[in-house]
Design brief:
This protein is of the alpha/beta class. The chain is about 30% helix and about 20% strand. The longest helix is centred in the N-terminal third of the chain and has 17 residues. The structure holds adenosine monophosphate (AMP).
């Protein structure tokens, strides 16, 4: 345990609602994925995420229950029941099928959080298409790279974001249609594009879901790896049972909960826990179009009487900065459970929750490739602040040493691994099976993280085992940033690292060397920053660029990002015997 942060005990009988998981050790013994499946429905063998999330409820007692409470950026509210979600997604499915979209096609989404995004995602899943969400703060280059890699045939976007698509469209021959959700912005749609409302409004409300099966593709999220550009981690429809079960037992969904997940569907938390887990459990979700704002967020909880809140450490650190007076001046008594994911949650954050909301914050761990929560601090289980909790009942998570054997001694650092076979496990990196295979060794899936396990099985995050940068819970590939920087005529080489940051955990910092004939001037630096921002967008572009004379490289020519980082932090540089400049 981290010194100064004693375990936070739990009195289950004092909790407002009896948790779905009360006995972690016992339920782990008897757990089976088949039992979880038995609570879902497979009509005629159909396994489809949209069916489990929407039609299953719309065809039954939850038809008139609110699925979505949508809050627009300017605070207007729209509500959609499960029955409406079924109708709207059916209309999308019919409209997209008529447009030529079929099972297995990759449909990309570049949109803010508006209701049509959710209708269209479900509509495409009903068609058997593969949904590929993009983060709206991506610049044209990350969009181009991802769509090209997966040979997307359709991009769904909004007028506000369309210019980024237009910039790269000529380089994307696979894209046959760009569908623009324009009616909310009151904009016209150019003749070469398709207006969402022009095809969805007249479409039929009845749709027979494509006969998808467990192993059919459903969704793909791009994630950053050790080397190269981001890869599309592809998931199958069978993953829905992981979302359902972790929703029930980790997020502790009960019928009357009002749930708010603050993650954007451009990232995996925003789909697995912003869409699949809550809807498969039939709860009501708040979806806020607006961005972060401490006051806005507390007002949102107060206004909608949110009971379960799933957020991220960067947001918690920003809320901490805004002080405890603000939450205390709002009525947040509806809250019964707060969770966080995406980066390590400092023990201070866990404990601050108690000060601000009279509730500790529960950290849990998972990643794009795992598709669903792998270990968690559960509502019924004592929290060890600083730990990511214990494995979910149906999965085996542990730490192993270099030769692949499990580390049994408590608190010894090793590779964090998962036993393959859980339902939401990714099934490939799109068009890169070799890289996928390389993640499985010695009978384990290697997560790329390092961790320790204590004597009671709580897992403690140590750090990443690669150069991937985690900025505000979003992974950034250094290679992707370097590739764009060297496109600039002044740049000879670039090396990109994650620089520690009090709020975002890390920010992207780039070091560049210049081509002959270019001078290190403020004007050049401004131009480099402009170039990076315009091409990569604010989610990926470096926060800082520094021009240096020489980049440290190995004798084989690989840029030593670790050394750049050590220098930046003033740390010992370690073994530099392979260094070129020596
Ligand atoms: P992503 O695939 O973008 O969801 O990022 C997953 C990575 O974020 C993990 O492999 C970790 O490096 C980091 N991460 C996610 N959740 C946590 C957590 N609770 N504690 C520490 N690191 C985390």
């Amino acid at each position: 345990m981290i010194e100064g942060y004693p375990e936070i005990g739990k009195d289950v009988s004092a909790l407002r609602v009896t948790p779905n998981l009360v006995d972690w050790a016992g339920q782990r013994q008897t757990w089976s994925w088949d039992d979880a499946w038995a609570e879902l429905d497979m009509p005629g063998g159909l396994i489809n995420k949209a069916y489990e999330c929407v039609d299953r409820h719309a065809n039954g007692a939850r038809a008139n229950k609110d699925a979505i409470i949508w809050q627009s950026a300017d605070g207007n509210i729209e509500r959609y029941t499960y029955a409406q979600l079924k109708t709207q997604s059916n209309k999308v499915a019919n409209a997209f099928r008529a447009m030529g979209v079929k099972k297995g096609d990759r449909v990309f989404f570049l949109s803010d959080r508006i209701p049509e995004l959710y209708f269209a995602i479900f509509g495409c899943l009903k068609l058997g298409a593969i949904v590929a969400p993009l983060f709206s703060a991506f610049g044209p280059e990350p969009i181009r790279e991802r769509v090209a890699r997966a040979e997307g045939s359709v991009i769904v976007t909004t007028p506000k974001l369309l210019s980024k698509v237009n910039e790269i469209r000529a380089q994307l021959p696979s894209v046959q249609r760009v569908v623009v959700i324009a009616h909310r912005e009151g904009k016209d749609v150019a003749s070469e594009d398709v207006a969402y409302s022009s095809i969805v409004d007249p479409a039929s409300e009845a749709f027979e879901i494509e006969q998808t099966r467990a192993e059919d593709w459903s969704i793909m999220h791009f994630t950053s790896g050790t080397t190269g550009l981001p890869k599309g981690a592809a998931h199958v429809h069978n993953a829905i049972v992981s979302h359902y079960a972790t929703g029930k037992y980790v997020l502790d969904f009960h019928e009357d909960d009002i749930y708010w997940c603050t993650a954007d569907p451009g990232w995996v938390t925003g789909t697995s826990y912003g869409i699949f887990a809550p809807f498969s459990n039939g709860v009501t979700s708040v979806i806020d179009e607006g961005g972060f704002g401490a006051r806005r967020w507390y007002e949102t909880i107060q206004r909608h009487k949110v009971t379960i809140w799933y957020t991220a450490p960067t947001a918690i650190r920003l809320l901490m900065k805004a002080g405890v007076e603000l939450p205390r001046s709002h009525d947040l008594t509806s809250l019964r459970y707060v969770m966080s994911v995406g980066e390590p949650l400092n023990p201070e954050g866990v404990v601050w929750g108690q000060e601000a909301f009279d509730l500790p914050i529960h950290d849990n761990w998972w990643q794009t490739e795992t598709g669903a929560i792998m270990c968690a601090n559960y509502i019924s289980m004592p929290i060890r602040p600083g730990s990511m909790g214990r494995p979910f009942p149906g999965v085996t998570v542990t730490v192993i040493n270099e030769d692949g054997t499990e580390i049994t001694e408590p608190m010894v650092e090793g590779q964090l691994v998962v036993k393959p076979g859980w339902p939401s496990m990714f099934r490939t990196y799109w068009n890169d099976q070799e890289r996928y295979d390389s993640r499985f060794k010695n009978g384990w899936y290697y997560t790329g993280d390092k961790a320790k396990k204590d004597e009671d099985g709580y897992i403690w995050f140590v750090g990443r085992d690669d150069d991937v940068i985690n900025t505000a819970g979003h992974l950034v590939s250094p290679f992707e940033v370097e590739s764009v920087l060297i496109e600039h005529e002044a740049v000879a080489e670039a090396g990109v690292i994650g620089k520690p940051d009090e709020v975002a955990m890390e920010v992207v910092k780039a070091f560049v060397t210049l081509n002959d004939g270019f001078e290190r001037t403020d004007a050049l630096l401004r131009d480099l920053n402009r170039h990076a921002r315009a091409r990569l967008g604010p989610a990926v572009a470096p926060r800082e660029i520094e021009i240096i004379d020489i980049l440290p490289k190995t004798r084989s020519g690989k840029i030593m990002r670790r050394l750049l980082k050590a220098r930046e932090l003033g740390l010992p540089e370690g073994d530099t015997s392979t260094l070129e400049e020596d």
